[in-house]
Amino acid sequence: MAASDMLKFTKIAQDYPVKRDAEERDDDFLEISRPYITDKAEEQSSRCSQCGVPFCQVHCPLHNNIPDWLRLTAEGRLEEAYEMAASTSTMPEICGRICPQDRLCEGNCVIETSGHGAVTIGAVEKYITDNAWENGWVKPIGILRDRSHRSVGIIGSGPAGLTAAELLRRKGYKVTVYDRHDRGGGLLTYGIPGFKLEKYVVGRRLKRLEEAGIVFKYEFEVGTDATMEQLRAEHDAILIATGVYKARALQAPGVGTGGIVKALDYLIASNRKGFGDDVPGFDDGTFNAAGKRVVVIGGGDTAMDCVRTAVRQGAKSVKCLYRRDRANMPGSASEVKNAEDEGVEFVWLTAPSAFEDRDGSVSAVRGTRMKLGQPGPDGRRQPEPGGEDFRETADLVIMALGFSPEDLPQMFGTPELGTTRWGTLRTDHKTMMTSLDGVFAAGDIVRGASLVVWAIRDGRDVAKTMHSYLMAKDAAEKVAA
Ligand code: FAD
Ligand code: SF4
Ligand code: SF4
């Protein structure tokens, strides 16, 4: 079909949406990329070679029908392109913004591997769905049939919980989502900063879910406001989608000194400030980088979000200390480039070992320079002490060393809830059910810290297995009756 509209990758060069200049963007929390204009989106989509075996699709965790929606976009059939994008994803415009495309769809596009530069899949996906919102093509959630005699309780309103909530509501179940925060969205709302994902984008998704009759109970912490057993008595099935929140700590002299903060506490304060909330920890300076020499420790996406937030808060200087080098860091290469453009300095191959203080407040980070040894199990070269010492002055140190799961069996009062040796929840690979009957789990709490797109995929998969479980329950009751 219309192959002549496609295959233009030899004639048309790859062209990502224009980014706002660093000087223009480094003091606001608005997204940094400008949207595609229609001609550009059509033109860029037409570069796709419509592969028989589309590796982009294979490597997209949602297996989105990428070649099809690219062709529809190139042909100007944008509403159909949106319908196709929405058929496999509950939030295509969010993935288009924050998926690490260079490691997923675009990194595996055949024209990238042939040296022509990948089709700009993420930017087109964002363009299609943003347009759908603007044009009213994003319809209310349709309820397929009434199954309100069954109710589902979902703990956690991150992308895994929200995806499952949408799909189960569509099946007709009564759905209640519990979250300990005062707003929904999980890390989409309180972790990821606005310059990657503006908050109205998450807000309109939440509104659509509320309008479909999904009940959100905020500031409700399971484990404190109800036990798991109480929830199980109230619902026919439960989904645990609580993410991973225990900050990994560094054991080093001076670690408890004032001015050393955890990454997520820092990002939550900044995001709350963006909502206009009263944030005492920001107002008293604890989580405010303005005028400070900031050192962020870590090399993942969370560290990148912290350094770029500190720039926007008006830090005097921002340095990122990481124990490996650029090639071996877990954070996305494009985020490092964005941070560097905004004035962040990366100090590679450095491992902190102590914190100095002046009058109870941190004044410097001391440590050892590293060198790289053999690759570890994850393929990245392992850091080893290189001998030399270093010292970086600092007024604010942000620890971004990753996250592990909280102790859910203890927190929920259910010691029989099975976990792995990493503390993530143990689930049956097929049913995604935990060791408790009717209690399922999805997202980071099962995978460990991962990606939004994988949380959506898990939410989609678990909605299916929960539906099967509830139908089997209905069938068993019918037989018994
Ligand atoms: P979460 O999004 O963590 O949501 C879990 C929810 O459960 C939270 O709202 C929490 O309040 C709630 N909860 C927890 N315990 C309880 C309880 N006991 N009772 C009630 N509610 C509870 N991924 C990307 O793909 N791209 C990115 O650019 C990216 N950037 C990131 C930046 C940061 C700073 C961080 C921390 C992560 C980032 N990620 C990114 C990872 C991504 O955000 C997560 O993989 C994803 O959000 C996991 O989704 P989830 O639904 O499993 O959990
Ligand atoms: Fe690419 Fe992510 Fe969209 Fe899949 S969901 S097509 S990986 S941007
Ligand atoms: Fe198009 Fe690239 Fe996907 Fe092939 S791999 S279908 S060229 S986007």
TrEMBL record:
Q: Using the record for this protein, list the coiled-coil segments as residue ranges, or answer none.
A: none
Q: Where is this region: Disordered?
A: 368-389
Q: Which UniProt keywords apply?
A: 4Fe-4S, Iron, Iron-sulfur, Metal-binding, Oxidoreductase
Give the domain of life. Answer: Bacteria
User: Basic and acidic residues composition bias: which ranges?
Assistant: 378-389
Where in the numbering of this chain does the Dihydroprymidine dehydrogenase domain appear?
Answer: 27-136
Pfam families xrefs:
Fer4_20, Pyr_redox_2
Give every FAD/NAD(P)-binding domain span: 152-459
Q: What is this protein called?
A: NAD(P)-dependent oxidoreductase
